[in-house]
Amino acid sequence: MDEKGVSEREILEELMNYRKLDLKYEDGKIFGSMCSNVLPITRKIVDMFLETNLGDPGLFKGTKLLEEKAVELLGSLLNNKKAYGHIVSGGTEANLMALRCIKNIWREKRRKGLSKNEHPKIIIPITAHFSFEKGRDMMDLSYIYAPLKKDYTVDEKFVKDAVEDYEIDGIVGIAGTTELGTIDNIEELSKIAKENNIYIHVDAAFGGLVIPFLEEKYKKKNINYNFDFSLGVDSITIDPHKMGHCPIPSGGILFKDISYRKYLDVYTPYLTETKQATILGTRVGFGGACTYAVLKYLGREGQRKIVSECMENTLYLYKKLKENGFNPVIEPVLNIVAIEDEDYKDVCMKLRDKGIYVSVCNCVKALRVVVMPHIKREHIDNFIEILKEVKKD
């Protein structure tokens, strides 16, 4: 650090040079991200709430009220106006909070002599987000990995058999898998969980702000789209900074009711409130403010329109791929398309060399494209042409 500072002009010019190295969503080159452009109104909100800290809510009572209003709106969307939760850093923190809740319920059972498990035992699909691997390592959890059926959703029979064979502390289902956008049969998983008094968490980080707004014409007859609190689930991850058009970080975690907070709170005597439930201590206030504002600003009609546009472009991509001899893994469930390719990793790198950024799947050899609001038809046409070039090389 130099003794004397530099001028505002100098530092801003330097920062701009670095910013120019970043990709921009509107350029139509980012095909593998679950984030997109934010709504313009959120830029004003970020500036308004930039200095607020939800980690010390007694100092920022208005910001805390906005977080509560945001949670209430998300809860209403998920069929539970009495949900308890927080706007957090993202899906990872949200999933970690659910896992921590499961672990502390297990601890309570151990103290009462009601559990023989040396570690909390949780069933998760092999398609679960990598945040669950972090949780396993951080919290010393024991996982049973559930395989997939032919439609790439979790095998409920395997889950049911595992519950009968082992003492299970938690079940995880996914509503909008990261790789393929598939939706596990949460209704069946919830039934298994409730019949056996097992905690069930739904990771709807991506699908949570897509599924409730899907028009009937986009829904498949063989898929159960129910995933929310109406099924009796214990917690749901839902991320406003994905399909909710909010700035990063704006993740969401909702629990069925306030009673779950006792499994999350830690003592924080030097803050204005002496208990804190989130993983992060210091938390931006603009995440909650933006979530509330965007949900109110768009309304269901506005969000439905955005989701429908993404689905139309997704089906357009699916059609163009088939017309050009490429093989999508499945017909799109949400706005995600996976393209089968034995050389998927090599093709992914070649696409990057040409300025197109897709990602890859883990459960199947395939390229992965997320059709976010910034992806337009001209971008899709360009992607198809470059993909054809790469495959010819």
Give me some keywords for this one.
single chain, 393 residues, Aspartate Aminotransferase, domain 1, Aspartate Aminotransferase, domain 2, 2 domains, 10 helices, 12 strands, 39% helix, 12% strand, globular, pyridoxal phosphate binding, PyrdxlP-dep_Trfase_small, tyrosine decarboxylase activity
Explain this structure.
It comes from Methanocaldococcus fervens (strain DSM 4213 / JCM 15782 / AG86). Catalyzes the decarboxylation of L-tyrosine to produce tyramine for methanofuran biosynthesis. Can also catalyze the decarboxylation of L-aspartate to produce beta-alanine for coenzyme A (CoA) biosynthesis. This protein is α/β, with parallel strands linked by helices and 393 residues long. The protein is 39% helix and 12% strand. β8 and β9 form a beta hairpin. The strands form three sheets. A seven-stranded mixed sheet has the order 1-7-6-5-4-2-3, sandwiched between helices. The chain has a three-stranded antiparallel sheet with strand order 10-12-11. A two-stranded antiparallel ribbon has the order 8-9. The chain has two domains: 8-38 and 299-392, Aspartate Aminotransferase, domain 1, CATH 3.90.1150; 42-296, 3-Layer(aba) Sandwich (Aspartate Aminotransferase, domain 2), CATH 3.40.640. α8 (286-323) packs across α10 (377-392). It has ten helices and twelve strands.
